[in-house]
Each structure stands twice: as structure tokens, then as C-alpha cells.
């Protein structure tokens, strides 16, 4: 469902004096984290996004159709666009060429009310100069008015004045840069990280063509992203492995008070709400006023529609937003001239007018869609009614859990062997499969700081279960009670009873499956535990090697081969392959897996840029659709090196 509303081109001239200067560049190399978040992999890749965002701004203004990003063999980056080219004339406030100002002055660009751009993304306009400051070298070429201009910088310093080097028939900008190895912890680009980000950018910028080329391989790897359907295709992409409830993606677009609004949505048969919001192509993980406008609209419109069609009775009461968003995949994308974000990281939009714009555009067009597609409206209401019934059952199950928790000291699970230290910062809990391993762990542990919670077998797969079944599951209840934080809307990280939650399972396929079931539960119901770095996987050894009364432990086949090679291969070697934690006595379990001085723990983390992929993987691997899982396994089986690890 579309209208003829499009982003309007900027009519004011984009010349040298549209480049506004706010301040200098001095602090960037001293405190890079203030400008790009970190000097780790995320900061390294952020440099590319900043240059690409500048090209996308040209596309949003209606002047750029193609962007090409190349990873060169030396891990330098080249970004080429076919926009107007950064202005090369003299900026009269600086008395220098505008392109030089863009790359050498912090907060200089066409984004500060100078009329260069109607809307723009980027990191508050600091992008180009910050990339320059944090690069070993950067070269910019401008193709403009039949001429080619060039300038080079090294660690932010100008190497020579802007110069004309040839003629051309094309327009655009080419930026080449190599990140400074003295600033970044690593300087090798990850093709897949760039691929994901550029694909999302292409989805959000309808019609643009973005090409990614990796020249580090003998045969260059090339991916091209081009989506005429924009965010409609984005929703289809997210739902590609899911069973959708109706075929058509609901799409609305329009402008209100100078704010351009796009919304696309489609329900599937899962129980999760996968709604993603963007402002000027920048992701807003914490939502904001545009997301509030969307949620208000979807709740009001569907309740009004359901009552009008008699799908919702008076006795039932209103469907909640949570009911209507069960199984929803949605993209909300707005373009706004003066976005106001809460915090430098642009996590949440604060513009009050954005809520009204989204409500107006989305509500008006959703009503029309439902009148024209009554069968889709009925399907959505029926799913929401089923969700309401399950929610009520889940509420009762949750109330039972809360009642059991009324008396703090007596509510801990009976099978929990708690630690004596009451300071959460000093404490950790091991989640262990089976009573046998649990017994060994209880004997092996440091009773002051290590708690043990044994679980019987494989816990409930929450990806396939409704919430009333989840809340009623004894093993899940035991974990919720032991952790102390509550779950979902009741979650409170300040009540966490342990600094480390350690999943300790056998080093085999069954153990990996149990660990995955636990991670699925934590990710779906207590994601903050993972995001704040409290969840770990223990790494028990696979082998015990004995020779002449000496003992070694190997955690994989490579370590086993190294140890055997070192001690010599002969008949005195005794190698034991552990089939499970229960085969270790308490002393061995402590020495290999629980002693903080010797053990190996792997922290479970979430990269915000990967959250959509993580959602999809959990659904594919743990959901009830067989075909996507088979395809995933067949596609990735070649990467498996040892199925027992």
C-alpha cells in the first residue's frame, strides 16, 4: 500500500558555503572512544559506516544511485559514490577548500543548517574528519564539473593542498583510507560485518545500489544489494525462514509536518515481537517517540477494527499491544530534518513530533488496508485473541511464582546448593545437567562463593512453547528463583544474586543442545543478563592423559596431539575420553573446570548489530519449522570440525 510521497530533493544550492564549521579536531586521536565508541572491532568498522553514511546522505537528497565499498588487500578501504561530489570551492569562513574543511575540522559538513541536506545520518557530522584523524592515511578524490580533484592526509595532517589532477565525465566522491594500527586493537576488516550493515542500509534506502568487494582473496568476493521494495523487502527477508500468517506485507508511507514515515509489517506464527526502528537510516535499539507512535496506532486501530467486526467481544476486554505484536515483524523508518537523540550513541529518538507523524500516517493508511483486506485483519485479530488467552494463563502461572517468592529465605529451590557469601559480586552459580554431575560439582565447589543448581535433563524449549507452559516448568522456575531478577517486565538486574551464571554441560552433542536450550531461555526472557556480561559457558576437558603418575588435560583434539607429541607416544600413555562431567571425581572437576585460577570460561555476548541474525538463528534452530533448519544444517555442516565439542 503506497502513496506517491517521496523524499523531496534539496532545492538550495550545495556549494562551498553550505559547509558549516563548529570546532577543531584536536581531541580525536587522544580520545577516539568518545567519537567512535571503541578502538576494538566495532570502532574499526564504524569508520566505514561514517564514510558510507555521507554517500547515503547524497542518496537521501536524491543525487546518488550507486555506492561501492572495497576492502583492499592491505585492509585499507575504498568508498566510491556517484553523488554531486564534496564541494571543492573555497569556504569563506575558513578560507580553505570546503572538502579540506570537511576532512580536517570536527563538526564540519553539510548537516548543520547550511542547506546542504534536508535529512542526514552520520555521527552528528563528525564522520569524515574523525575517520581522517584515526587513519594512517586518507586520500579523497572529487569528480566534479568535468575535473578530478585530490588531497591526501596522514593521521589528520594535510600533506598537500587540494589539487586538480585530470578530467572526467562522472560526478562523485572517492575516499580511500587505512586505519591507524597504533590506535586500533585490530585492523583486519570482517567481510560479514560490513555485509550485514550495508545490506540493511540498502533495505532502508529504497532503490540505491550498494556493492561490497573483498579484494583480499585470489578471486575477489562481490555482493550487491539493491531493493526497489525497500523496507517491504526487509520484512520479507527477516521472515524468510518463518511461517507467515498472510502473504502480503502491510506497507504505509507518507509525510506529516516535514517528517517522512515508512512502516512495513507482517505477522508470523512465532511468539516473538521483532520490531526494528530507524531514524535517517540510523538504528535506534532503544526505540523512542517514533516507535511509541507505531505501537499506539497498532493497538488502537486493531481494537477498533476488531470491535467493529465483532471479532472482539465486550466480555474479552481490549487486546493489549503485547497481544497484537505477538509474532510481528515490523520496520519503522522515519526521515527527519532535526533528529534529537538521547545520548551521543543515538540509542533513542526524543522528538515529540515524530510520534504524531507516525501515528497520523500509519493509522490512516492501516485503516484503509484493513477495509480492503478484511481476511488479513481477521487473521491478525485471531492470533492476538489466542495470545490474550495464553497471556492470562501465563499471568496466573507467574503469580504463583511470585507467591512462592514472598518469603525470601525459604523460596530458593530445594536442589540449589547456595553459597555462603551474600555479596553478589563475589558469587557465581553453576547450572549443571543431571544429579550425577551436580553431586560432583557440589563436592568440588568453593562453598563460600560457588552455588550449584542441577537440572534434570533437557529444559523446555521456550522457542516452541507458550508462556503459560514456560512459567509452569519446574526447571525454569528453579532458575528464575535462583537468579533473583525476575523475568520480562519484572526483570530487575539490581536483584541479581550472582555475578556469573555459568552453564556447565557435557562436552558432547547432548551437552551442547542443553546449553543451547538454556541460552534460548535466557535470550528470550532475560536478555539483559547476556547483554551485561553475566552469562558464561564452562569448558570441561575432553581428555585426561596419564603417564608415569603425571596427569594432563586436553580440551580438544589439537591439545591432545600436542601433549602426546610432547610426552612421547608409547605404551605408557593412558588416554581417557570423558563422556560426561559425571565421569570426573570432585578433585578433577575442580582442577579442570571450576578452579578460577585454572578454568576456561567463555563469556556469552551480543553484538547489537547482530541481533537480527541472532533472532533468526534461534528461530531456525529451535523453532518448529523443519525445512529452514535442514537448510541451515546443510549449508553450515562443512564448517563443523568436531561434532563432540
* Number of separate helices: 19
What CATH architecture of the largest domain would you give?
2-Layer Sandwich
Rough outline: globular
Would you report the number of β strands?
24
Radius of gyration: 28 Å
- Summing up helix and strand content along with how strands pair, one would put the structural category as alpha+beta
Q: Quick one: biggest sheet?
A: 9 strands, mixed
Number of domains: 4
CATH level 1 class label of the largest domain: Alpha Beta
Which spans have pLDDT < 50 for at least 5 consecutive residues?
A: 1-11, 405-410
**Terminal CA distance:** 49 Å
Helix fraction, binned, reads 25-40%
Strand content: 15-25%
Mean of pLDDT = 86
CATH topology title of the largest domain: Heat Shock Protein 90
What do you see in this structure?
With 645 residues, the chain is an alpha+beta fold. It has four domains: 16-226, Heat Shock Protein 90 (2-Layer Sandwich), CATH 3.30.565; 231-393, 2-Layer Sandwich (Ribosomal Protein S5, domain 2), CATH 3.30.230; 408-540 and 587-639, Rossmann fold (3-Layer(aba) Sandwich); 543-577. The chain has 19 helices and 24 strands. Strands 1, 2, 5, 6, 7, 8, 9, 10 and 11 form a nine-stranded mixed beta sheet that branches. Helix 3 (98-104) crosses helix 4 and helix 9 (352-372) crosses helix 10 (374-404). The two termini are 49 Å apart.
